[in-house]
Design brief:
heterodimer, A: mainly alpha, B: 6 helices, globular, cell membrane (chain A), Sulphur transport domain-containing protein (chain A), transmembrane (chain A), transport (chain A)
């Protein structure tokens, strides 16, 4: 547990939760990243603006963070590019089929007490843990 | 216009949360998923903190009944479990466990991470586009028309 960072994890979590709360109370929408991005493929005209605005907020967050003196964490990516492409395809397709990802199901859905989101979160956690166990400890990728 | 500004603010806040919590770092996420190795429980606290605050937001939104800036709440109402939900979640977990990236951190990491993040995001968008080709009744599910399909 030498990498455990409880304080920054909690602060970051509260910020993410605040984003979801704000978005629901003001815009009446679920702050689910895969849904906001994926919805751009079949948007109602009135939805394009806020979807792009939310994504723009995500994109400028690192700049805002460093502007106020923050030091960005590393993005340590060990996976090869072909594996990243395979994983990206699966994540893109899977999050749309399952109607949500870590944010939509994990944060917003569980926050609402949605049984679908609870089940989805349990399942993607389980398959992610199993996948990592197989690749890291059995195959040694 | 306000609706767009608040969406931008929410996205910004979300991104800052992912940065502060270091969830933009795939190695950190994989450290959480590696419960049989050098386990790093940080992600559980990120999620726990986020769920509590988002639950408070839900209570406020429900009590108000109507959002501040929009005509109505667009909240998923389905409560049934179906093969799409289960299969989709299972697939997503496999992709997530392979590399440690999920959609939010991938998008934030796009701006300052190493270039291969791009490959992941591009493939993810292709995956989302491919989903558009899937017939709405595959695999055999009955869709409730009255329930708006809202995604997270």
């Amino acid at each position: 547990m030498e990498n455990f960072t409880p304080i920054s994890a909690l602060i970051g979590g509260v910020l993410i939760g605040a984003s979801a709360a704000l978005f629901l109370v003001l815009n009446g929408r679920v702050a689910g990243i895969s849904g906001i991005l994926g919805g751009l493929f079949h948007p109602a005209r009135s939805e394009i603006g806020w979807r792009l605005a939310f994504l723009a907020g995500l994109f400028v967050a690192p700049l805002v963070y460093t502007t106020f003196g923050g030091v960005l964490p590393p993005v340590e990516l060990d996976a090869s590019v072909p594996l990243l492409i395979v994983a990206g395809l699966i994540v893109g397709f899977g999050t749309r089929l399952g109607a949500g990802c870590t944010s939509g199901h994990g944060v917003c859905g569980i926050g609402r007490g949605s049984p679908r989101s609870l089940v989805a979160t349990g399942i993607f956690m389980a398959t992610a843990i199993a996948t990592l166990f197989i690749t890291r400890h059995l195959i040694g990728m | 216009m306000l609706l767009i500004l608040s969406a931008f603010a929410a996205g910004l806040l979300f991104g800052l949360g992912l940065i502060v919590s270091q969830m933009v770092n795939p190695a950190k996420v994989l450290g959480f998923l590696d419960i049989f190795g050098a386990w790093d429980p940080s992600l559980a606290l990120v999620m726990g903190g986020a769920v509590v605050v988002s639950a408070l937001g839900y209570l406020v939104a429900k009590r108000r009944g109507v959002p501040v800036l929009a005509p109505r709440l667009e909240i998923p109402t389905r409560r049934d479990l179906d093969p799409r939900l289960i299969g989709g979640a299972a697939l997503f977990g496999i992709g997530w466990g392979l590399v440690g990236l999920c959609p939010g951190p991938a998008l934030v990491g796009l701006t300052f991470g190493p270039w291969p993040v791009f490959a992941f995001v591009a493939a993810m968008i292709v995956g989302m586009a491919v989903f558009r080709l899937v017939p709405a009744d595959w695999p055999q599910v009955t869709f409730r028309r009255e329930a708006p399909r809202m995604d997270g």
